[in-house]
Design a protein that fits this description.
Elements: E1 3-6, H1 12-30, E2 36-39, H2 40-45, H3 50-66, H4 68-76, E3 80-82, E4 88-92, H5 107-110, E5 116-122, E6 133-138, H6 144-152, H7 166-173, E7 176-181, E8 188-192, E9 197-199, E10 209-218, H8 228-231, E11 235-239, E12 246-250
Antiparallel strand pairs: 1-8, 2-4, 3-10, 4-10, 5-8, 5-10, 6-7, 6-9, 11-12
Bound molecules: 2-oxoglutaric acid.
């Protein structure tokens, strides 16, 4: 289980520009005062207008200039691709009836067989007035095979999501502590697909939170323990090995076995 918290390092001016763009897109589609998850892949597939097309391009540019990709290379010694399909932007309000994301692991997106690294990047300061992210940290080392079995045994909740309640989490991790991260814009946390996390429960939060999640996986292999329909036609971005240029495309371009006829 890998969790790293960086208090700074990302370009704050670029993050501010992304936040302004998200606020405009969110206000247009959801008004104000409601939480929402904006889909980068939908904006690429069916852009409502030019501003959505530009936004996707800005997200991709930001990612490849941020240094986050270097983290993946350094940790796993493999070339990463950005899973744009699973690049999510959450605008999280603070009303009591707002939907906070419950305990889960991101193996939900990509299974366990390929190293997945999530970079959770807040676009406003979090952890004091606006909810951040909370991690469950085991007090003793956890056997990944145990975690994986616990994940496979989960029964989908009423919305079809694989989430852990506190009992399932204790069974998987043994004794654990909760760690909420407070971050200023420019900081981020990075974690792998085995790390349980949820939206921070922050009583008294007064400010809405905007965050973007970049999910990276190895460019040279597909997961074998996840629903194949998740990876077929999956939107990705990668650096071309010869030209070094950044590409945006679908999984079939890199993995011929996924190409649709
Ligand atoms: O940003 C959050 O509060 C949680 C989001 C999350 O963990 C997810 O989308 O997988």
């Amino acid at each position: 289980m890998l969790l790293k918290v960086f208090d700074y390092g990302l370009n704050t001016a670029k993050l501010e520009a992304l936040r302004h763009a998200i606020e405009a897109l969110h206000a247009r589609s959801h008004g104000t005062g409601s939480s929402a998850r904006l889909s980068v892949s939908r904006m690429h597939r069916e852009p409502a207008d030019q501003s959505e097309t530009e936004f996707v391009r800005d997200v991709v540019r930001f990612f490849w200039s941020s240094g986050i990709d270097r983290l993946y290379r350094g940790l796993f010694e493999r070339e990463p691709m950005l899973l744009l399909e699973f690049c999510t932007i959450r605008v999280q309000e603070t009303r009591p009836d707002d939907e906070y994301v419950p305990w889960h692991i991101d193996a939900n997106f990509y299974g366990f067989t390929v190293p997945l690294l999530v970079a959770w990047v807040p676009l406003v300061d979090v952890g004091v007035d606006a909810p951040g992210l909370e991690f469950a940290q085991p007090e003793q080392p956890v056997d990944l095979a145990v975690m994986r079995r616990a994940w496979q045994d989960l029964k989908p909740d009423e919305r079809g999501r694989s989430t852990f309640d506190e009992t399932a989490l204790s069974e998987a991790l043994g004794p654990f502590s909760r760690r909420a991260v407070a971050l200023k814009v420019g900081g981020f946390c990075a974690f792998d697909q085995a790390v349980p996390h949820r939206t921070q429960i922050l009583p008294g939060a007064t400010k809405r939170r905007i965050a973007i999640e970049f999910r990276m996986a190895a460019l040279d292999a597909l997961p074998i323990d996840t629903d194949p329909t998740r990876v077929r036609g999956m939107l990705i971005s990668w650096r071309d090995a010869e030209s070094r240029q950044i590409r945006i495309g679908y999984s079939g371009q890199l993995f011929p076995e996924l190409a649709t006829r």
